[in-house]
Structures are given as structure tokens and as C-alpha cells.
Specification:
PyrdxlP-dep_Trfase_major (chains A, B); Aspartate Aminotransferase, domain 1; pyridine nucleotide biosynthesis (chains A, B); EC 3.7.1.3 (chains A, B); alpha/beta; homodimer; Kynureninase (chains A, B); 4-stranded antiparallel beta sheet
């Protein structure tokens, strides 16, 4: 496909107007939206409001009058449709790592007779590290718990299974529905990490998509119910809520009355301002709130949710598959493809392998095409359908091929490692 | 003391120029800086930079080039002098509740043969709630741990003691040094919550004040060492870092190599970007970092630290004691004093009791004097010496006396409770 054909696809793209919602530096093709999303054009003004009109002018009154106190729930309700959840099922705050700790600890308490956590050694490291810290804590330093790798595919005695829907390195996408059913059939609970899927595709934590509270209620209760028990994810990748934006935690309504929030801070209390002596959990999803929300970071999330409310996720997924397929086609066999070749089996990223991946990526960034590198040898390219177009993909692939053909990456300047890769 | 005398004190106040560093709404005397500090005048521009010049222009490169990755440590080092700590002893991030969880869990792991946590039922609720959640988690739902109230004053079998230096309700200040020595003599570790002292007075986690790394090293190692083992606190009260600003965690250097961060997220790893399979803690204070810092919320902390670097805490404490004493004198016996009468025994707040405290406070706020209310009957007034002056105190006391004398609080409009008190 040549560049004119790509421009024609951009012209007929139903999402094309959304690109104007984002600020992107001149001369940059930004293919790292799977790591940190771009700045929405509306965000600076929302931040100014939060700082000057809310904090500056309302001071402590902002807790009542600017909606700060309810931000974890109001943003949770707005985010819920992006993962196939309904109102009262998602709370926002803290970080993905902390949400994983809450979810896995709660799941273990719901399966007190089991001592196995199935995870993936090759899952995003923080998922695995958090499980290691939790099991050390629970075991009093002893091996009372076993962390078993998914590769063994044995769920039969597992308390909880923790998996990512889309793998951060390869972009491979798992079938949430079948694996959830498999875990449930074995009596295990499942926690899905949605960091690399939310905002890139239709996500379906409830198993059948969320079709309103009444339908969901009717559909619940069976042991073979296919929905996730817990899900977590971040908002700073495809959702574009800014560096270090708060994470989200989904808790299936079946578990909300029985699951415990082990990080039982005062914002999860039934009456935080009664200042009672003992923790008494709030009803519903609020019990999973921990403590004072990072209000200024929430403001940027609110700004980007204004955009997402106008986005059709089916269009996002269709464009995402088209963009990643186009990139793979244009790169051809110049590099080994690490991601699945079938677009339905991958997320919105393409991972390629090169033994000198680090300097290749540095050379590419120097020419305005921004991807990132994951040790030891993977080049990652994320395609955020809201602001990346077909011509961008064409130009990125062309530049990559030039860097490889002319061996531009051999410039010694590209060998120096930066702290964050 | 009449208003002219107060104006004279303001004119000779060595901190008077600092008031211009803050934005305060016209007609408001803001005595809630002990809950949420005022907006520094320089903060909006720093926030704009973080949003537009860092995130917007540098995108994911901000992790390397805007210093985001090291923010938890760089802000920790800048904050350290405010609590009598040195470089490499403080990490910033998350919330106070989460830092308490980390500190108490780490302390329990350092005292594996003990099962008692001494806390206070009347401590700020989240401290107590977090301990309850942690002990439930560790006990597997059983009472393997005992949370004993400080009132019993029995430390002899305690693993860890968790106390606030300044009580959030009464403003009473504890003697950190003697209680720390008492806990240590009993073989317990101690975690100090500094939320209501940092930025209001000289805080001294190291027991003798921090006098440089070499002096501190020489002073360490004895069983009777008087320094805190861990300390936590927030930055949104007297430090003025904004609503939901990140918290801090101090870990004594003696414990840094042995204490475990049970929230072992990837940012506490020795090499986060090596993506190793197993958690391997970083050297030093970095192991207590958890995960992606809330970058936009950190920016507001950085702005206010620019101010604090020019502030003499001895002057802050002297003015704080003078302001609170003046307020108490002016109110006289119109209301029962809940705070200690001796200024050396209280923080920078004055708590007064009134059976109809809620409508009294609402009436006062309606007249431009902002304090807050803590159930069931306490009126709290916080005096932030950086932006509150003697004439402000005079005017606030005069307004309070008028509200009481004329029973202005009986207006039914003031009875309606807001969500956040």
C-alpha cells in the first residue's frame, strides 16, 4: 500500500476528527501510546480549573463543592463502559500495583482453603512482584503459598489466577472468556490486568458485555458465570490521562458484599467522617477506596473521559487491527515479528525482534518515530487509534526500513542507555 | 491585645513576606491549613509546565528528561530536612494510609516473634483502620495479632507502636523522643505519623535532628538510639502541596537493608527495566517505592518545596505558638479549650468544644472565617504560620465571639450537614 492509499484511508476514517483532540509535537509520529498516551488538547484548561478555581478558590470546600470526595466513584462510573462494566462496579485511585495487591488479597480471603496463585513469570513484572510480596507477607516469610506459572496450565487447586488480557511485550491477546470459564470451573477466582487493553479495544469484564444493571443481575449467580471476579488497569496508556494517572479496580457485584479491602483506609469506611473506632466497610464498590484521592491527577482523567464518552470502541478496535496489520505488512520480513500475525489475537501494538534493538530504537526516535524498547531485544510500537493514522504508519515503517537498510543505528551515540528504556 | 497591636506584630514578623507566596480568596481568613493548605502562587505555572512542557511536549521521554522516574526520591531528599532526616531516608508517593501499611507491615516482619501492635483507638481513624486490615490479613481472619490501645501504656511485648506526634482532634503534641526511647527499651519498633506536625514545627525523626550523614552515622547503632524507625505523613496540610498530594515514608538507615516493602511493585526493584522474573529490592530508600508516581500531583509538591527551602522552621514554630496562644487568649472562656493550654504541648491548631459545634462552624464560615468541625462537638482552627498573621487571628476570634454572643449559629440553614465535614 502506498502513501496516497494511506491518505485515502485517513480521509474516510470515522475516527479522524479525534486526532484534533490531541497535542502532538511537530515532526513526531508517536507510537508509544501503549506506554504513555498523548496530551488531550482540553486537559491543560481542566488542570488550570482544578488548581486555581477548585483548590485555590474553594480551598478545603472543594471536598464538598468540587466533587473531590466522590472522584474515585464518579470517574469509576464513567470509565466502566470502557471495560464492559456497569455503574457501581469500578473504583479509581492509587496505582495498578496497589490495585493488584487489593484484588489478589481479597480473592485469597474468598478462597481460604487454597494456597496456590496462578500467575505468569512473563507477565508484566509488577504483577508478579506484587504477588511475591503478598505471599511473603501472608506466609510470615515461609512458603505457605505457591505461585505457579500459567505455563503448567493447572488451575485445579488455585485460589486465584492473575493474568493480563494483552501481553506487554508481545502484544498477544488472551481470550478472557474461555480462560475465565476454565478458572471458574476449577473453583478459582480470576483477576484480569487490563492495562494494555483498555482504550484499545472493546473489553468485556462481565463476559457478555454490560447490558444494563437489570440484565446483569438476571445473568448472575451461576457457578459457571463467565465474568471476571476482579480487574485492574491503568489510565495513562490508551486512555491518555497523563503520567502516573490513577488506576482502576473492578469488583464483580457478586463479591462486593463479601470481599475485603485489606488496604482498609478511611475512604472505604461506611462513614468516614463519623470517625468511628473500628473499620466498618462501606456498601458496594466504595469499600475498595483507600484514602485521599490524588485530586490533581484525577482532573486529567476527567478531561480525557470527556473524549471517551464520544468514542465507539468497535471503531477503535477495527482501526487498531487495520493499523497494526498495515505496519506488519509494510515492514515485511525485515524484522522478526514477535506479535501474533492474526490481528484478532493481538492488542494494539506490534513487537519486533532485533538483536541490537536498543540502538535501532534510538536511531528511529532520532528521526521522529517514537517507539520503545523492552529488554533484551524487543522493539515495541503502539498504535493509539484516536491519534494515529494510516499515513503515520506508512511513514513510520518507511523510516524503520531506512534505519535498517542504511544501518543508521550503528552510530555509537545510540548505544548509551538512558535510565528508563 | 487589640487589633493595632496585632498589626504591629505582623509588621515585625520575620515570616511576613511569605504570605505573598500564597493565593487566598478575598474576605477569607483560612484556618484550615491543617486539613488542606492554601495554593502557592507559583504552583499554577509549575502545573502548566508539567502538563504542557513535560507531558505534552516530551511525552514518554519525560520519564528520562523531566525527572519523573526519580521524583519519589528527589522530592524525598528535598522534604527530608523538614522532618529532621537526611538524604536517602525519605521516599514520596501514594497516600499516608498506604505508607502506614508499608511501615507497620515492615516493622512486624522485623519483629517476627511478637504479635502486639500498640496504637490508639483515638488516633486518626485511617491509622487504626489500616492496622485492623493488616492484622486481619496476617491472621487469616483469626485473632493472631492483638491491637492494644496506648492507654494501657504496655509496650513490653509489642512488635510495633504507631502514634501521631500531634493529635488531629485536640492538637496535643507528644514527646517523640521519650516515647520512642520507651518503645525501644521494650524492644518495640515505632512508626510516627507526622501529618499534623510536618510544616508546623521542627520535627526530629532522628532524635537529635539531622546534622549531616557523617554525624548521623556516628550516632547510630546503640539499642537506646532515640530516632524513629519509620515515619509517615502527608504533604497537603501545612506543606501546601495540594488536594491529595503524595505522602512520604521515612525509613531509618538502620532498617533500610533489612526491612521489606510488602507492596513490592516494580519501582522498588533494583533494576525495574531489566524486567526480571523475581523481585529483587533496590538498595536504600528506593526499595520502598511502589510503582508509577502520580507525576502531575508531584509537580505541585515540587512547587511548594521551592518555598520551604527558604523557611526557618524555628521561626515557624515560634510564630505558631504565638498565634495559637493569641487565639486562645482572645476567645477566653467563651468556649471550652480542648487543646493543651501550654503552647509547647500542642501543634499549630486550637480545638474548642461546643455542643452545637457544627452550626457554629457553618455560621463562622459564612462570615469568612474558615475552620472545620470534628464530630461530635469539636471546632478546629489551624494556624499556618506562612500565610496567617496576628491580625487574622484577632479578626477570627472577634467573629467567633460575635457568632456566639448573638447566637447567629441558630439560623436553621446551618444545621444541614454536608458530605464532608
Amino acid at each position: 500500500m502506498d502513501r496516497d492509499q494511506c491518505l485515502a484511508l485517513d480521509a474516510s476514517d470515522p475516527l479522524r476528527a479525534l486526532k484534533d483532540e490531541f497535542v502532538l509535537p511537530d515532526g513526531v509520529i508517536y507510537l508509544v501510546g501503549n506506554s504513555l498516551g498523548a496530551l488531550p488538547r482540553r486537559t491543560p484548561e481542566r488542570m488550570r480549573q482544578a488548581v486555581e478555581d477548585e483548590w485555590g478558590a474553594q480551598l478545603v470546600g472543594g471536598w464538598n463543592h468540587a466533587g473531590w470526595y466522590d472522584q474515585p466513584l464518579t470517574t469509576g462510573d464513567r470509565l466502566a463502559p470502557l471495560i464492559g462494566a456497569g455503574p457501581g462496579q469500578v473504583v479509581v485511585g492509587n496505582t495498578t500495583s496497589i490495585a493488584i495487591f487489593q484484588a489478589v488479597a481479597a480473592a485469597l480471603r474468598l478462597r481460604p482453603d487454597r494456597r496456590v496463585i496462578v500467575s505468569e513469570v512473563r507477565n508484566f513484572p509488577t504483577d508478579h512482584y506484587i504477588v511475591q510480596g503478598l505471599t511473603r507477607l501472608l506466609g510470615g516469610g515461609q512458603d505457605r503459598y505457591e505461585v505457579r506459572d500459567l505455563a503448567e496450565r493447572r488451575f485445579e487447586d488455585a485460589a486465584v489466577v492473575l493474568l493480563s488480557e494483552v501481553d506487554y511485550r508481545t502484544g498477544a491477546r488472551r481470550d478472557m472468556r474461555s480462560i475465565t470459564a476454565e478458572a471458574h470451573a476449577a473453583g478459582a477466582l480470576i483477576v484480569w490486568d487490563l492495562c494494555h487493553s483498555v482504550g484499545a479495544m472493546e473489553v468485556n469484564v462481565s463476559g457478555d458485555g454490560f447490558a444494563g444493571a437489570a440484565a446483569a443481575e438476571a445473568d448472575r449467580g451461576g457457578a459457571d458465570f463467565a465474568g471476571a471476579d476482579f480487574a485492574v488497569g491503568c489510565t495513562y496508556k490508551y486512555l491518555n490521562a497523563g503520567p502516573g494517572a490513577p488506576a482502576f479496580l473492578y469488583v464483580d457485584p457478586r463479591h462486593q458484599a463479601t470481599a475485603e479491602n485489606v488496604l482498609s483506609g478511611w475512604h472505604g469506611h461506611a462513614e468516614p467522617f463519623a470517625f468511628e473506632e473500628d473499620f466498618r466497610p462501606a456498601e458496594g464498590i466504595r469499600r475498595f477506596a483507600v484514602s485521599t484521592p490524588h485530586v490533581l491527577s484525577f482532573a486529567a482523567l476527567e478531561a480525557t473521559l470527556d473524549i471517551w464518552e464520544r468514542v465507539d470502541l468497535a471503531q477503535v478496535r477495527a482501526k487498531s487491527m487495520a493499523l497494526t496489520s498495515l505496519f506488519i505488512d509494510l515492514v515485511g520480513d525485515a524484522l522478526e515479528l514477535v506479535s501474533p500475525a492474526d490481528p484478532t489475537e493481538r492488542g494494539s501494538q506490534v513487537s519486533l525482534r532485533h538483536p541490537d534493538g536498543y540502538p535501532v530504537m534510538r536511531a528511529l526516535i532520532d528521526r521522529g518515530v517514537h517507539g520503545d524498547f523492552r529488554a533484551p531485544d524487543i522493539l515495541r510500537f503502539g498504535f493509539a487509534p484516536l491519534y494515529i493514522g494510516y499515513a503515520d504508519v506508512h511513514d513510520a515503517a518507511t523510516t524503520l526500513l531506512e534505519v535498517l537498510d542504511k544501518e543508521l543505528w550503528r552510530d555509537p551515540a545510540y548505544a548509551t542507555r538512558l535510565a528508563v528504556t
